[in-house]
């Protein structure tokens, strides 16, 4: 979780977030929405080195739908070899929809856990109480699901420490540091360094940055001994003015950056070991 980890050659966990629950094919025609589309993208990304697939469900019209997570999970298992499924429990959904992400059959190995509400643009404001967060954390622990702790800002990092103090999380803690607009952390190298400095002990961290910030801040995460999330949920463009052709294109670039910086990509089995899931 430090520059020393980088120097020691610690392996990088690469997560792909293929689709999300906000923008659709109107923003980029290459965005996968249906289960078979998502599964094909995940399969190719796994082949390139992604060990975790962050999963959202969409209905037949492309709208965000937790009810469709089961179908996406089934399709990924049919298409892929060993990728770790990480279902969402986040977004602007009510608690009843959030909890569906950890009640698929079988349950996912991992699930995201937003550390609080956030505001993203004019019309996306989430409601997510401490009671909801604690309830999700308890059920994840009961079901043997590893939470990925989504810290959208500094206050959410405080909430991560609070859950640890309540005894609701098990080491190593996996914290996803998120940068972008709205009430996300402001994207800058200095802010990333500050958040890394304030991580709890015995934590692994991952970096998610939206849009044009994805490449520079995930690259910085590699140098700081952290892990990387990329994909079309967070960034629809390969470079300025050039839409991403698919998720694999973003994953392949990240793999090249990671390897050129002297670190290796973790396999799904190695990712489970790093995160204490084995």
Automatic annotation (TrEMBL):
<dbReference type="GO" id="GO:0043720">
    <property type="term" value="F:3-keto-5-aminohexanoate cleavage activity"/>
</dbReference>
<dbReference type="InterPro" id="IPR008567">
    <property type="entry name" value="BKACE"/>
</dbReference>
<keyword id="KW-0862">Zinc</keyword>
<dbReference type="InterPro" id="IPR013785">
    <property type="entry name" value="Aldolase_TIM"/>
</dbReference>
<dbReference type="GO" id="GO:0046872">
    <property type="term" value="F:metal ion binding"/>
</dbReference>
<keyword id="KW-0808">Transferase</keyword>
<dbReference type="Pfam" id="PF05853">
    <property type="entry name" value="BKACE"/>
</dbReference>
<protein>
    <recommendedName>
        <fullName>3-keto-5-aminohexanoate cleavage enzyme</fullName>
    </recommendedName>
</protein>
<keyword id="KW-0479">Metal-binding</keyword>
